[in-house]
Design brief:
two-stranded antiparallel sheet, IrrE N-terminal-like domain-containing protein, plasmid
C-alpha cells in the first residue's frame, strides 16, 4: 500500500507523502520556488478526478487523487506529480491557463517515466495538446518557466506577450495558446492504468 511506511536500513520506504516531497523539490528546482503563503495540508482520496482544492478558502491546499490508484504507486505518483505543479503558484481558484495544465501534465509524465520507467497515456486530448505546447517552449529553453516566473510568478497569469518578449523565436500562435484559459473537453477517456 502506498500509505504505509516500512522500516528499511537507512530510514523508511517510499510513501505518497515522501514521494510528494521528492516531486515538489524536483518541480521547484526545474520551475522555481512555490508560493509558500499557502499551506499544504496533505493528500486525500476521492472517487472523482484528481485535483487540488482550497478547504475553507483560508490559504490551505489539499491534494485529492483517485481511489483506484491506492495500490498503484506509479499511477498515484502520476496524479500527485500533476497536482504538485499546481502547488507552485496557486490562486485559490479553479481557472488556469493551458501553460499551467500543460506543465502539470508534462511534469507528471516526466516524473513517472524517470522514477518508474512507466509510460502513462494521456487521458484527454486537451491535456496532451497543452503538454505539447509546453514541450515546444521548453525545447527552446529548459529554464523557460523560471525565466517567465521572474516576470510573472503565477504561472496561470503569464501572458502571450510575456512569453513572446522572452522567446521571440517561439511561434506566436504557441504563445497565445499557452496563455489561453485551459478548457478540458467533455468526456475523454478515463485515466487508465499504464502498461
Amino acid at each position: 500500500m502506498t500509505l504505509i511506511a516500512k522500516r528499511i536500513p537507512n530510514g523508511y520506504s517510499w510513501t505518497l507523502v515522501t514521494r510528494l516531497g521528492d516531486m515538489l523539490a524536483k518541480a521547484e528546482h526545474a520551475y522555481g520556488r512555490r508560493d509558500q503563503s499557502y499551506t499544504l495540508l496533505g493528500i486525500e482520496f476521492r472517487e472523482e478526478d484528481p485535483q487540488i482544492w482550497y478547504p475553507g478558502n483560508c490559504g490551505h491546499i489539499a491534494i485529492q487523487i483517485t481511489t483506484d490508484v491506492i495500490n498503484d504507486m506509479p499511477m498515484a505518483c502520476y496524479q500527485l506529480a500533476h497536482e504538485c505543479v499546481h502547488l507552485l503558484s496557486p490562486t485559490g481558484e479553479r481557472v488556469v491557463n493551458a501553460f499551467e495544465e500543460g506543465l502539470a501534465t508534462y511534469f507528471a509524465h516526466k516524473y513517472v517515466q524517470e522514477e518508474f520507467g512507466r509510460y502513462v497515456p494521456d487521458s484527454y486530448a486537451s491535456y496532451a495538446a497543452a503538454k505539447n505546447l509546453v514541450a515546444e517552449l521548453l525545447a527552446l529553453d529548459s529554464d523557460a518557466v523560471k525565466v517567465l516566473r521572474r516576470v510573472e510568478p503565477t504561472i496561470s497569469k503569464i501572458t502571450a506577450e510575456q512569453i513572446t518578449v522572452a522567446y521571440p523565436s517561439l511561434n506566436p500562435a504557441t504563445a497565445a495558446a499557452l496563455a489561453a484559459p485551459f478548457e478540458r473537453e467533455a468526456g475523454g477517456i478515463q485515466l487508465a492504468h499504464a502498461q
